[in-house]
Amino acid sequence: MGTHMENFQLRTYAFINSMQPQFAAFLGSELDGDVPLAQMAELWLELAPGSEVYNLLDAALKASEAKPGLQMVEREFGVLEIHSTSVESVKNAGETILDMCGLSITERLKPTVVSSKIITKVNPYQAQQINKTRKGSLLLPGQSMLVFEVEPAAYIVLAANEAEKASNVQLIHFNPFGRFGRLFMAGSESDIKSAAEAAEAAIH
User: Fold this and answer.
1) Domain 112-203 indexed as CATH 3.30.70.1710
2) What CATH number does domain 9-107 carry, 3.30.70.1710, 3.30.2130.10, 3.90.640.10, 3.40.50.300?
3) What is the pLDDT of residue 74?
């Protein structure tokens, strides 16, 4: 067994078995480590104390074929992203980390939806304000837009991936860091409603 430490907190354990094309492309442009590709499996972990992520990631990489996309300490929390074409490799990496922490998946903080808002027929000026800070697709005037927020923040990856899988929408931006994770998507009103429902279902 691993080096169990007391007072570990598993804030996020978010597993994705198949990354969607827009989601993977967005991550590939944002993450500093190994580049993830569509259809790869992925795991996001957020733990406290944050400084432990270095040791934990090293052990997970030695125990599996998974590759790291992100290793970051933000305030008191450590965030990891690992991915692979093999679902089993990602699961093995996650199990190695949990074992070292003496934790189980059931001990993760339960994600909650902070807000879910749909704006229909977005005003051209509003669209340009969003476009100034987005890293994904451009938001076009007249589209409907979903703004979706979750806590802990890293769970927004589940919402983003499932919303894209469920409907014909454009991924505008998402941010898995900070107090709340935030997702912006655009499309027709009916597609955005489907995306919102899928995002909600992914979090509950």
Assistant:
1) yes
2) 3.30.70.1710
3) 79
CB contact at 8 A, 134 and 172: yes
Read off the pTM: 0.93
Q: What span, in angstroms and rounded, lies between the C-alpha atoms of 45 and 97?
A: 9
Q: Give the residue from 94, 92, 95 showing the smallest Cα distance to 81.
A: 94
Residue 47 confidence (pLDDT): 92
Rounded to whole angstroms, the Cα distance separating 23 from 41 reads 12
CA distances, 128 to each of 29, 98, 140 (Å) = 21, 43, 8
Pick out the chain residues at pLDDT < 50. 1-5
Which amino acid appears at position 113 of this protein?
V
Alpha-carbon gap, residue 129 to 145, rounded angstroms: 13
pLDDT at residue 75, as a whole number: 75
